[in-house]
Amino acid sequence: MLKKALLTAAATTFVATAAGAADLPRRAAPPPVFTPVPVFTWTGFYAGLESAYTFTDRQRITTAGVFPGNATNVALGRRPAAVTTSQDGIANIGGTAGYNYQFTPGSGIVVGIANSIDWTDITKNRFVLGAPNVAGGPPNASQFRQSLDWLGTLTGRVGYAFDRVLVYGTGGLAYGNVFHDANFYTPGGALQFAGRYDDFKTGYAYGGGIEFALPTDSFLNTFAVGRYLGIKYDAITIKAEYIHYDLGTQNVVVNAIPGVGAGAYVSRFRTEGNIVRAGFNYKFGGF
């Protein structure tokens, strides 16, 4: 009887243990961990270097006589009433800095502000021979010189980013240092009238461009000098842009040389042109 009771108890314990084990959770491998890939954004500060090609198309210089005798010389073509000059040149070096804000990372609208300064150093001389003087005498020579030493633009920009490609339009303030010079000579080559202007001018600028952010694994990053100088940046971008600038007009009084000429003229110079920039920027923050 005792033996039968012991067997019954053992069987009951075995059944209970098996049932409890069936209720335990199954052992399963943990789910894989996925690290999200960062979405590129143009938001952040940036700064970089650039080179530029500057060119002008028929900048106009007009001249008027201040006194009746001078006005007559202009009317008769002895002094040029209007001439045009064209200039072009490659800027040696330039720089830019600014800030962008992108509303939605990845693809979306980008707004920003940029300040760029380029050493343009373009100069044009223009010599003009006037109409013959009284009784068929030799003509007078007139010389104009026009220079743009450097050009800066402080502009806002609005664009659209297609991930790492940004297309934008820009517009705002243009400023720079201009030089205007007018010299009028006698038929014998003596300086008869002279005037000049050398100062800071402001105006406006507008244009557009395209910028591309290099992928972090691009071999072009190996050419980034900043990485070897310890500069901490998020990305390197390369850009190309076109800007039209207009610094307005400037009157230059061309006064007579005492004992050689009499009276005065006023020559009005216009400074207007185009600049094509190409360069790279270091982008900081926002990745």
UniProtKB/TrEMBL annotation:
Keyword Signal part of the UniProt annotation: yes
InterPro entries given in the database record: OMP-like, OMP/PagP_B-barrel
Keywords, ordered alphabetically: Signal
Residues of the signal peptide: 1-21
PANTHER family reported for this sequence: BLL7405 PROTEIN (PTHR34001:SF3)
Similarity-based family: Belongs to the Omp25/RopB family.
Protein's name in the database: Outer membrane immunogenic protein
Species per Swiss-Prot/TrEMBL record: Methylobacterium persicinum
